[in-house]
Specification:
- This protein has 268 residues and is of the alpha+beta class.
- The protein folds into two domains: 149 residues, Aminopeptidase (3-Layer(aba) Sandwich), CATH 3.40.630.30; 104 residues, Beta Barrel (Lipocalin).
- Helices cover 21% and strands 44% of the residues.
- The protein contains five helices and 16 strands.
- The strands form two sheets. Strands 1, 2, 3, 4, 5, 6, 7 and 8 form an eight-stranded mixed sheet that branches.
- A hairpin with a 2-residue loop joins strand 2 and strand 3.
- Helix 1 packs across helix 3.
- The two termini are 25 Å apart.
Length: 268
């Protein structure tokens, strides 16, 4: 799995992903006039403008674009996952990445939630602040939710000692899973951990806790195929509303195929 900034060569594929998702999912919730409105709203011209402004990213599986995410300032504007790739956590992964980028400049994130997406956004901590309406063709009313979420920035006061984490999301080229448990230790800026479970027989990592609470470390483990794997990782913490830590990670194998990936760990 690769999540990266879109370029203009991706325009037609992103447009096709958005249009196919709207035309497949939205008729289950809306009359045709509303479906047509969304299709026109997310026009190829609008997507092209957002790409040129550096506001669109794409998620690739096996080299193919299967989802896209977009934001403008503090507003999440276009997140779509192809129907056959839904319910796999990809939408959540994209939203978390966008939240991290927005939090660099803003304390809150906003979005206009369609009926198919409102329940997901609620699970991710967004709350409705306004019920809005928009008149489309033939007098049909589009009702939607304006939602917001307070963003929790990385903290310099985090101490990782004794904390346990499990993966919530990992790229397909990764080896840890929800059965893998990480136990962290910290002494000053020195960080180390042991991990095992799932396909991992035994692993360890060692690195630094930076002044802003972010982590830089190297890791190695033995998997169930008795292969030794090594890599490096940069991890960005977010403090959730319940006081738990969520780690958004960018990692790279330093053995094997040397590929890169992303993961999200949540504190147990």
């Amino acid at each position: 799995m690769i999540y990266e900034l879109a370029n203009i060569d991706d325009l037609q594929t992103i447009y096709d992903v958005v249009q196919q998702t709207i035309k497949t999912i939205y008729p289950k919730y809306y009359p045709q006039e509303v479906v047509d409105f969304f299709c026109e709203h997310h026009s190829i011209e609008a997507i092209s403008k957002d790409i040129k402004n550096g506001e669109v990213s794409v998620l690739k599986i096996g080299g193919n674009i299967v989802a896209t995410g977009c934001f403008v300032n503090d507003h999440i504007t276009r997140v779509y996952v192809l129907p056959e790739f839904q319910k796999k956590g990809y939408g959540t992964f994209i939203i978390k990445n966008i939240e991290e980028k927005i939090s660099a400049k803003y304390d809150k994130a906003y979005l206009d939630a369609s009926l198919p997406a409102a329940a997901l956004y609620e699970k991710l901590g967004f709350a409705t602040i306004k019920h809005d309406r928009h008149l489309v063709e033939n007098g049909v009313i589009l009702a939607y939710e304006v939602m917001e979420k307070e963003l929790h920035k990385a903290s310099t006061k985090i101490n990782y000692d004794g904390r346990k984490f499990i993966p919530k999301m990992n790229s397909e080229n990764g080896e840890v899973s929800e059965q893998t448990v990480f136990l962290y230790h910290q002494s000053g800026s020195l960080l180390w951990a042991e991990y095992s479970g799932g396909d991992i027989l035994k692993g360890s990592l060692i690195g630094n806790v930076l002044d802003n609470g972010e982590l830089d470390f190297v890791y190695h483990h033995m998997n169930r195929d008795m292969q030794i794997k090594t890599g490096k990782c940069h991890s960005v913490p977010l403090l959730t509303e319940n006081g738990k830590i969520e780690l958004s990670e960018q990692w790279e194998w330093t053995s094997g195929d040397f590929s890169k990936g992303e993961s999200i760990l949540i504190e147990m």
